[in-house]
Amino acid sequence: MSDELKINRLAKEDIDVVYNVFAVTIPDTFLKENITLPGDLIKNEIELKKRLLDESIEGRGIFFLVAKLGELVVGTVSYGPCGEDIRKCTNSALSRIGELGSLFILPEYQGMGIGSLLIKKMVSELSAQGIKRFCLDSGYKLAQKKWRRKFGEPYMTVKDYWGPGYDHMIWLCKVRGFI
Ligand SMILES: CC(C)(COP(=O)(O)OP(=O)(O)OC[C@H]1O[C@@H](n2cnc3c(N)ncnc32)[C@H](O)[C@@H]1OP(=O)(O)O)[C@@H](O)C(=O)NCCC(=O)NCCS
Fold first, then answer.
1. What pLDDT score does 57 carry?
2. How many angstroms does the Cα of residue 114 sit away from the middle of ligand 1?
């Protein structure tokens, strides 16, 4: 990485390029996870994320940080209200805890520490806002392996949530531990 990595709040003019990060990274993730989904379901997943971008620009509860190398947006993270899967799996036990989500790094920039930097920056923002805990979840096996190392053993694992052999994992973390 020759350019300096900068992490900032999402600006309106970044929306299209951030959308491109989702459009590239989400299908690539399904491919690497050996998950075969019809094209329209993958498209829905991308559109769902795009709606979150619009909500964040409208100031509706969620906010994004984006990582840029020069002018290229290489990754994102969001923080917002606890999502549907976490509510469902925990029987709403974590519904008052905000969720770290939308962690996507362009495929060719994965494994270089950019995800960790985004997490660190986001958690610093949470700390500055007096937030003490956050949660996150993942149904992707490759991300689960990384998050187990980074966040420890999950608060909850829901066996076969996404189908046989595809568990869902939820972490509950203290802000203090990640700044
Ligand atoms: C998952 C993802 C966001 C991680 O970002 P990244 O930039 O690739 O990850 P990093 O290099 O910053 O590593 C993050 C942490 O993973 C862990 N990790 C990294 N490489 C690992 C490996 N080979 N084995 C196990 N854990 C590993 C480490 O704990 C590391 O943090 P640390 O170095 O601070 O301890 C990114 O790979 C991605 O976009 N994947 C595809 C989409 C996806 O699955 N998103 C997550 C949805 S929940």
1. 93
2. 8
